[in-house]
């Protein structure tokens, strides 16, 4: 029996599953804390690389980035005869997508347990416009830290901004984060295309400005409550395809959204530019969101 099963008690309920694996709520038997543990299958031949990447994630410590813990553990080598889609992981700073035969290992990645994500909270911000501002500021703090390490998140969306037990926003799902300058190998996961910068295509080097486009879409969603999923889809699609977003004002905050989602990457501010600007436009942010939420 591997260390994972001896160290953790697995809670019955699955927190969720994605293209790369399943995430379970688990209690550590020694420290008695709850964690989210992601179980992914990896091909043995890419194991070293993925473990190195998992180790890198564990070295990132920032209050606005979901904590990954050391020694992502591997166990259970299985020989697969079938052709099986084995993807990279939260270690997928990296490798993905090939469908091959081979020896597969299970990898267990221990993460800080989060409680919900921004996407679930967007509908319920009435009376709380200041919370939305704080979440966005925390998000930008995490992003500017990640970028300072030369890493782009590469899959930012409201679903990947998590809330911790103190209701602080943290960037999570770092599975496809990549070094700036490395080449894009895969397309984003389904649902993520509305956040994908228009210049982001297979073969193009990753640039942190691609994250800024996604962050601009997230800022738009925070500031302009959208009534239905259908409306949201139409609006964000028009933004991606034609650079059109209904932004009514000319205030600092409106200008910021426009610049962040610009189709010209050079017009987009960096995460630290955004951070520096935020205190100045806090009142506009909170005030305009408050008016929209109350339908004034
Ligand atoms: P994709 O494979 O396309 O990236 P995904 O992002 O939904 O899809 P995962 O990253 O595997 O897939 O996450 C699966 C689910 O687990 C998600 O719904 C997410 O909300 C949840 N989850 C991931 N990390 C954590 C965490 N640290 N704490 C709590 N829940 C988490
Ligand atoms: Mg996700
Ligand atoms: Mg994911």
TrEMBL record:
What species is given as this protein's source?
A: Rubroshorea leprosula
Q: Which Gene3D superfamilies match?
A: Phosphorylase Kinase, domain 1 (3.30.200.20), Transferase(Phosphotransferase) domain 1 (1.10.510.10)
Acetylation listed as a keyword: no
The record's listing under InterPro entries reads:
CC_SR_Kinase, Kinase-like_dom_sf, Prot_kinase_dom, Protein_kinase_ATP_BS
What does UniProt give as the signal peptide span? none
Cross-referenced Pfam families: Pkinase
Protein kinase domain: residues covered: 9-286
PANTHER family named in the record: EIF-2-ALPHA KINASE GCN2, EUKARYOTIC TRANSLATION INITIATION FACTOR 2-ALPHA KINASE EIF2-ALPHA KINASE -RELATED
Amino acids binding ATP? 38
Q: Which GO terms describe its molecular function?
A: ATP binding; eukaryotic translation initiation factor 2alpha kinase activity
Report the GO terms under cellular component.
cytosol; nucleus
Name by which UniProt lists this protein:
Protein kinase domain-containing protein
Q: What are the alphabetically sorted keywords of the record?
A: ATP-binding, Kinase, Nucleotide-binding, Transferase
């Amino acid at each position: 029996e591997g260390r994972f099963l001896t160290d953790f008690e697995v809670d019955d309920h699955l927190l969720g599953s994605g293209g790369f694996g399943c995430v379970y709520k688990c209690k550590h038997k020694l420290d008695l804390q709850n964690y989210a543990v992601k179980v992914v299958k990896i091909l043995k031949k890419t194991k070293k690389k993925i473990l190195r990447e998992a180790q890198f994630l564990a070295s990132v410590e920032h209050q606005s980035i979901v904590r990954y813990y050391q020694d992502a553990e591997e166990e259970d080598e299985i020989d697969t005869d079938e052709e099986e889609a084995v993807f990279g992981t939260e270690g997928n700073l990296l490798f993905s997508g090939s469908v091959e035969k081979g020896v597969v290992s299970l990898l267990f990645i221990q993460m800080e347990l989060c409680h919900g994500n921004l996407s679930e909270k967007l509908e319920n911000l009435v009376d709380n416009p200041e919370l939305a501002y704080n979440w966005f500021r925390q998000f930008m703090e995490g992003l500017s830290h990640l970028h300072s390490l030369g890493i782009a998140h590469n899959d930012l969306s409201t679903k990947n901004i998590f809330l911790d037990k103190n209701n602080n926003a943290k960037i999570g799902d770092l599975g496809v984060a990549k070094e700036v300058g490395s080449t894009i190998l895969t397309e984003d996961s389904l649902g993520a295309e509305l956040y994908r910068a228009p210049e982001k295509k297979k073969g193009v080097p990753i640039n942190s400005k691609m994250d800024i486009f996604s962050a601009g879409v997230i800022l738009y969603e925070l500031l302009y409550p959208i009534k239905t999923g259908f409306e949201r889809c139409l609006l964000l699609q028009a933004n991606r395809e034609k650079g059109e977003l209904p932004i009514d004002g000319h205030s600092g905050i409106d200008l910021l959204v426009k610049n962040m989602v610009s189709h010209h990457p050079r017009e987009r501010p960096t995460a630290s530019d955004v951070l520096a600007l935020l205190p100045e436009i806090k009142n506009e942010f909170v005030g305009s969101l408050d008016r929209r939420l109350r339908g004034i």
